[in-house]
Write a structure and sequence with these properties.
about 1400 residues; mainly alpha; two-stranded antiparallel ribbon; about 70% helix; Cullin-associated NEDD8-dissociated protein 1
Length: about 1400
């Protein structure tokens, strides 16, 4: 079917071209009509709904082709209007058919009416009511709405007077529907109808529509908002002199527009529509420019609750002000500019928000209009550069640039002159210049050259061969072959839309045969029709005119045929069916004779006569059957729906329900408006109670009334509104304004009624619970007498599994109230229930329970007994586990809170020590412990040391013992040892200076006495000293630095690393004493230099981590550090160079202005090691979080990354690593450089013989590949770029030859290549399919590779990993649609599945 449709499109475009070429003769057109129209109209009557639907779509394309424009009469379409209209009307009137067919019939009829309406004036009164009726059917409603948009957009101005009022009324009702797509289509259709028939629609109808539009304007759906505002503008322009329309817009839509303009989300189409709305409104009757301008400027004022507007919102206001001024005329615009200049002169130091908006408005007006008539306006703006507020300076720069756009000849030289002469203002002036340049590229984009994409160009060269081959396949007998041929043609048209313009004539016969041959299956017809539709849609109409068949010739033939072969007079039942089938069989052999029937036109029966003949002889049902069987020669039948049908009782009931639903939706929307307006209005008038009283009178009654509604969605929304009202009534607890007390009782009573009612929807129950918790937490001091009746209900809701979670959170809200609500009547029961919930399987419930218990303990801890605490603690001990660190953190936090609440209770301390402490000591040994859980564990030990019946010494011993190696698991992981050390440090600091000092002395003793006997003990001692020293100055402990540095001599690497860490962290506690010591040691102790540099790295890293953007390092120390580090850039030891690079990178985060130029200068160093080190330093300076170095590095990063073409491989690898880090952490830094960098990066993936050397080891020789690490890094970089910068890459240029080469490379290179191939198969399947055959060989060699017989276990494991990696890539490729057409890949898959060992591995990874 798809192939058939595409072929029809090819035929259509070629015909159009052929007809225009031979416009002096109608013969080519007639010939082509004979070739195509008959099978298409025949297909409209097919039984199989998919064929019918596609045929109707093709008819739509035929309509467009017959009359491609309305200026010329070529080709002469009039003879074909009636047959097409009749065929489609029969389908449109038939309700007993598939939904897809109904929708296609509606769409096709709308095209017919919009294209041939001037030739169908008499038929429209019969057809249009059917379309209106389809709008009443929920299934076809959306399509019917779109159909009327097509008709309204016709340049023929179709006469819709018989249905216009009904259509507009129906559409207005649809604006209240929940279906978003329907509302969008309705807005578009109403807009088209107003444009075309606005004068025929009454002002009253306009007002009704405007009221509905006001409910659609919201930041929640900006696309819908844009459509609503567009329609509003169209109606104002259509009724520009109507006062009532202007009043309705001002009262209903304008308030919503002023709320919308404050949104930071407003942009694009919605913002443009809002600008047009204000421009239209200023011309509308009963609207004043001055009042509109005041409303806009007032909307930008800061509100008490949300503060000032976001930057985007201020720009939106400024743009609307500018559009409004220009729409109002030169005089109003000039007065507005003068007013804004006055603000800048008089208000420069008093109201920054007002000045900010004035500058933005001037900029937006200046961009649209020349302001040179306002003398010295540029000087007034530039004076704002002196403002102390950064936003004012930025706005002034923006304004100056945009004013210059309005008159470049005057203001651009001024800006350039100022840049030269005003050094202090240079930065802002350059931003102004940037605005000027940016506007030239945005407003007047340059002409882009069309560039053929190379693979597509190659494919285009092969199209003639493809078409020739496909034609041969279409003549085959095999149905599958024909279906495949049309599938190929369909894909060809999708890839190269205009490629078949010159080949339509070669394909027409194939399409025709596929649609008319007796042996054609439904699947083949569908493929042919889909292809025809695609071709028609993607080619010019002129291509197809020569191939449209003359339908009237078929009509004439059919008329005579039925006249000569009438049915038997007594035909009925089975006889009639036999006659019908015989008619069908007789017609098919005659089909080839249809183009040239030898019939005198004077003897032809008219269509009306023929229709009457059939109705008399057969009856309506039999006639339909015959027409379907006889190549769908459809007769014009007038089908009129009676008024009784339209007023059917069931339909009325359905409409009544529909209107009821719409009413609920409208009320929901109004409730939301009420909530937001109340919030804004109350806070705006917080200094006066009068406006507040007015607002409450206006809103509280309907909101509280809505709480009692039957429809659950209204009730739930009303309860949410009540929650907002509560928050608004008492926004803070310090002041008594506004006076909320009169409204507490009504709100409480309304919510209590809902809370107490159990027979209601779950959503209502949850909203009632949440709202009541807000009421109690906000008005609890005014509800003391009512709480004993309300609180037990909330406790009861905790026992219900459906409302349990909401009720738990409700008590957290109450407990967090600053009013300290009296919960004595239920507190014990609440805590008991919550304790039980800690045993539940529901994770969300346990999390909420822990948070609520924590809040209750903080607020009412003294009222909860120690026994209850002990029960809770027992439950908490079961939640502490590395399996759920978030839950663990919450449990430990609650434990700390309880210990602080009962600090003097011995029983609580004992319970914690016996139940929680053992779990904490198990947890601390976990290598997964980090983040929030680790911090909570540290606070736990700090709290525990203050708790009764707990000893510091026993806690310290327990912590140190937890770090001992266990027989079964051996020593602790590095992360676990660091966790123990941090907890020891926190414990010591919590215990006080004396305990801390004794602990440090004990740790020093371990280092002195145990340096060569117990490495694990010494390792932990060093880490503990480092953690304590980072938090506390240890300079009172004389020579502690020398004791630590002695551990550098240890034979154990982990001891030396821990000593280096400890020394660096001790220095953090007292930089002035220990940093000079470390720097001096680096200069004098060459053997310890590497470890000392690690200590220095710890010092520098702590400055950037603990105090980002700040540093305690003195200027002199920084200079000394930099001098030392730059001296060691040339070190022969790679480890030293890496540490130096990391140090430089961390300092660059602290002092970017100093470091980036210094690093850039050294990229030109003659020493390769120095160049490599500075590039690696940049790698460490590019971190995920935003840093001040980013803006300094952005213009300079190319200097570092271009070292990828350096002559030294170490430098190239460093540049590749830096590029990979930038692509991962901050891709925007490098996206603009990728066109130049990618070819250089790809070059690093190539095996280079000059980098392979042979080492003679005596009895045997060893081959060393010095480029292996570089190739591996390059492929890993490509892998990262595919994740972050795919839009900047062309995968095809990388796959061949670079990826294919990598797939045959070393094991270390193959692994990232397999990962890249998997990603490309998912993200760029077409590029992979294009070279799939080339990928098969290296993949097959990889999965077939076997290690040597004497290979060690490590080599065997690596080979298995490589095979699994290759299988993952193969599995990804197998999921690509079309991969099965590669014979080599198909053979590879079959080979894998037929080999037991390979199949098992493949199925495992798949």
């Amino acid at each position: 079917m798809e192939a058939g449709l595409a072929l029809l499109e090819v035929a259509r475009r070629f015909t159009h071209w052929h007809v225009l070429k031979h416009s002096s003769s109608s013969k080519p057109f007639d010939l082509t009509v004979r070739a195509l129209s008959s099978p298409v109209l025949s297909a409209v009557g097919e039984r199989y709904y998919k064929v019918t639907a596609e045929a109707l779509r093709v008819c739509g394309e035929l309509v467009r082709v017959l009359r491609p424009n309305f200026e010329t009469s070529m080709p002469d379409f009039r003879p074909y209007v009636s047959p097409i209209y009749s065929a489609i009307l029969a389908r449109l009137a038939n309700q007993d058919q598939d939904q897809e067919v109904k929708e296609c019939a509606i769409s096709c009829m709308s095209l017919v009416i919009s294209t041939f309406g001037d030739n169908l004036q008499k038929d429209l009164p019969a057809c249009l009511p059917i379309l209106v009726d389809r709008m009443g059917n929920e299934i076809t409603r959306l399509t019917a709405v779109k159909a009327f948009a097509v008709i309204a957009n016709s340049p023929l101005r179709i006469n819709l007077s018989c249905v216009l009022e009904q259509v507009v009324s129906e559409l207005t009702g649809f604006l209240r529907k929940a279906n978003r797509a329907l509302r969008q289509a309705t807005l578009g259709t109403l807009n088209s109808l107003v444009v075309a028939y606005g004068e025929q629609i009454s002002s009253t109808t306009y007002e009704v529509i405007i009221v509905e539009l006001s409910t659609l304007i919201s930041e929640a759906d900006l696309h819908m908002t844009a459509l609503a505002l567009e329609l509003c503008c169209t109606m104002m322009m259509a009724k520009i002199s109507s006062q009532s329309v202007g009043v309705t817009v001002s009262h209903k839509v304008l308030p919503q527009a002023l709320i919308l303009i404050r949104s930071s989300l407003l942009q694009g189409q919605a913002l443009q529509a809002l600008q047009r709305f204000f421009a239209s409104l200023v011309h509308s009757a009963n609207t004043s420019f001055d009042s509109l301008l005041d409303s806009l400027l007032s909307s930008a004022k800061p509100s008490p609750q949300s503060g000032g507007l976001a930057k985007q919102a201020l720009h939106s206001v400024a743009q609307c002000v500018a559009v409004l001024c220009l729409a109002a005329g030169d005089q109003k615009c000039a007065s507005t500019v003068d007013m804004l200049k006055g603000i800048l002169k008089d208000d420069s130091n008093m109201n920054s928000a007002k000045q900010h908006l004035a500058l933005l408005c001037l900029g937006e007006i200046g961009r649209r209009k020349d302001l040179s008539v306002h003398v010295h306006i540029e000087n007034i703006v530039i004076e704002s550069f002196q403002s102390p507020f950064e936003e004012i300076k930025s706005a002034a720069s923006y304004a100056l640039g945009n004013i210059a756009v309005g008159n470049l000849s005057k203001y651009l030289p001024f800006i350039l002159d100022q840049i030269d002469n005003q050094q202090k203002k240079q930065y802002l002036l350059l931003h102004s210049l940037k605005e000027v340049i940016a506007r030239q590229s945005i407003d007047q984009p340059g002409n882009l050259l069309f560039i053929w994409f190379f693979p597509r160009w190659l494919l285009n060269q092969e199209v003639p061969k493809i078409v020739k081959s496909i034609n041969r396949q279409l003549r085959e007998k095999s149905i599958k072959t024909k279906v495949g041929a049309f599938s190929v043609l369909k894909e060809l048209v999708l890839v190269l839309p205009n490629c078949l313009a010159e080949h339509i004539s070669a394909l027409v016969s194939g399409i025709e045969k596929a649609l008319t041959d007796k042996s054609s299956t439904s699947n083949l017809k569908i493929e042919a029709l889909v292809f025809t539709r695609l071709v028609m849609a993607s080619h010019s109409p002129s291509v197809f005119h020569p191939y449209i068949k003359a339908s009237l010739a078929l009509m004439s033939y059919m008329t005579i045929f039925f006249h000569r072969h009438p049915p038997p007079v007594d035909a009925c039942g089975r006889k009639k069916e036999i006659w019908m089938e015989s008619i069908h069989l007789q017609l098919l052999p005659c089909h080839d004779e249809i183009p040239c029937p030898q019939v005198d036109t004077s003897t032809k029966l008219s269509l009306d006569t023929f229709a009457s003949h059939l109705r008399v002889q057969l009856g309506a049902a039999a006639m339909d059957h015959v027409l379907k069987k006889s190549l769908d020669f459809l007769i014009t039948i007038s089908l009129k729906l009676s008024l009784k049908c339209l007023l059917d009782a069931r339909l009325l009931r359905w409409r009544r329900i529909d209107l009821s639903r719409a009413r609920w939706e409208a009320r929901l929307a109004l409730l939301e408006v009420a909530r937001r307006f109340t919030h804004w209005h109350v806070l705006k008038h917080s200094s006066s109670s009068k406006p507040f009283d007015l607002t409450v009178r206006a809103l509280s009654s309907p909101v509280l009334s809505a709480v009692g509604e039957r429809y659950y969605k209204v009730t739930a929304e009303a309860l949410r509104v009540c929650g907002e009202l509560v928050r608004v009534l008492r926004p803070n607890f310090e002041t008594s304004m506004p006076d909320f007390r009169p409204y507490v009782s009504p709100i409480y009573s309304a919510i209590l009624a809902r809370l107490a009612n159990q027979d209601q929807d779950q959503e209502v129950k949850e909203c009632a619970i949440s709202c009541m918790s807000l009421v109690i937490s906000t008005f609890g001091d005014n509800l003391q007498k009512d709480l004993p009746a309300c609180l037990p209900i909330l406790v009861d809701r905790m026992g219900n599994e459906i409302t349990r979670l909401t009720a738990v959170k409700a008590f957290a809200v109450i407990a967090n109230s600053p009013l300290r609500i009296n919960l004595s009547c239920v507190l014990e029961q609440v805590v008991s229930e919550l304790t039980g919930f800690l045993r539940k399987a529901n994770r969300a419930l346990r999390q909420a329970t822990l948070g609520t218990l924590n809040s209750l303990v903080v607020a009412y801890g003294e009222q909860i007994s120690s026994t209850t605490y002990e029960v809770i603690i027992v439950e908490l001990s079961t939640l502490i586990s590395e399996a759920d660190l978030h839950m663990t953190a919450l449990a430990l936090e609650l434990c700390c809170t309880m210990m602080m609440a009962k600090i003097s209770s011995q029983s609580v301390g004992v319970t914690v020590s016996h139940k929680v402490l053992p779990q904490a000591l198990i947890l601390i040994r976990s290598s997964l412990l980090q983040g929030q859980a680790l911090q909570a564990l540290q606070r736990f030990f700090a709290s525990l040391v203050h708790s009764a019946n707990t000893s510091f010494d026993s806690l310290l011993d327990s912590l140190l013992s937890s770090a001992k190696p266990s027989p079964q698991s051996g020593g602790l992981a590095k992360q676990a040892l660091h966790s123990v050390a941090q907890c020891v440090a926190v414990l010591c600091l919590a215990a006080g200076d004396q305990k801390c000092a004794s602990t440090v002395d004990m740790l020093k003793g371990i280092l002195k006495d145990d340096s060569n006997m117990n490495s694990a003990k010494q390792h932990l001692a060093l880490l503990c000293l480092g953690e304590i020293g980072r938090r506390k100055d240890l300079s009172v402990h004389v020579h502690i630095e020398n004791i630590v540095i002695e551990s550098f001599q240890s034979p154990f690497e982990e001891i030396k690393s821990a000593a280096s860490y400890a020394l660096g962290n001790i220095a953090v506690g007292n930089l002035s004493k220990y940093l000079p010591f470390i720097l001096d040691q680096i200069d004098n102790q060459q053997k310890k230099q590497y470890l000392l540099l690690h200590s220095l790295k710890e010092v520098i890293a702590r400055q950037s981590i603990d105090q980002p953007g700040k540093s305690e390092l003195q200027e002199s120390n920084v200079e000394k550090i930099l001098s030392l580090l730059f001296n060691h850039c040339e070190s022969d030891e790679e480890g030293v160079r890496n540490v130096v690079a990391e140090c430089l990178g961390k300092i660059a985060l602290i002092e970017p202005k100093k470091l980036v130029p210094a690093l850039k200068e050294r990229t030109a160093s003659s020493t390769a090691f120095t160049r490599a080190t500075v590039v690696i330093a940049i790698k460490y300076a590019i971190v995920e979080r935003p840093e001040k170095i980013d803006e300094i590095l952005y213009p300079e990063i190319s200097t570092f990354l271009m070292l990828i073409k350096d002559s030294d491989r170490h430098v190239r690898r460093a540049a590749v690593l830096a590029l990979s880090t930038a692509a991962h952490n901050k891709p925007n830094l490098i996206k603009g450089l990728l066109p130049e960098l990618l070819p250089l990066l790809y070059d690093q993936t190539v095996i280079k013989k000059e980098m392979i050397r042979t080492v003679d080891l005596g009895p045997f020789k060893h081959i060393v590949d010095d480029g292996l690490e570089l190739r591996k890094a390059a492929f890993e970089c490509v892998d990262t770029l595919l994740d972050s910068c795919l839009d900047q890459m062309n995968p095809s240029t990388f796959i061949v030859p670079y990826l294919i080469s990598g797939l045959s490379d070393h094991y270390d290179v193959k692994m990232p290549c397999h990962l890249i191939l998997s990603k490309l198969a998912d993200k760029c399947p077409a590029a992979v399919l294009a070279v799939l055959d080339s990928l098969v060989d290296p993949l097959e060699k990889t999965i077939s590779h076997k290690p040597k017989a004497d290979a060690v276990k490590q080599e065997v494991d690596r080979n298995e990993d490589m095979i699994r990696s290759a299988f993952r890539a193969i599995a990804s490729i197998s999921r690509i649609s079309g991969g099965e057409y590669s014979l080599k890949f198909k053979m590879l898959i079959n080979n894998i599945l037929n080999t037991a060992a390979l199949a098992e591995k493949y199925n495992f990874v798949r």
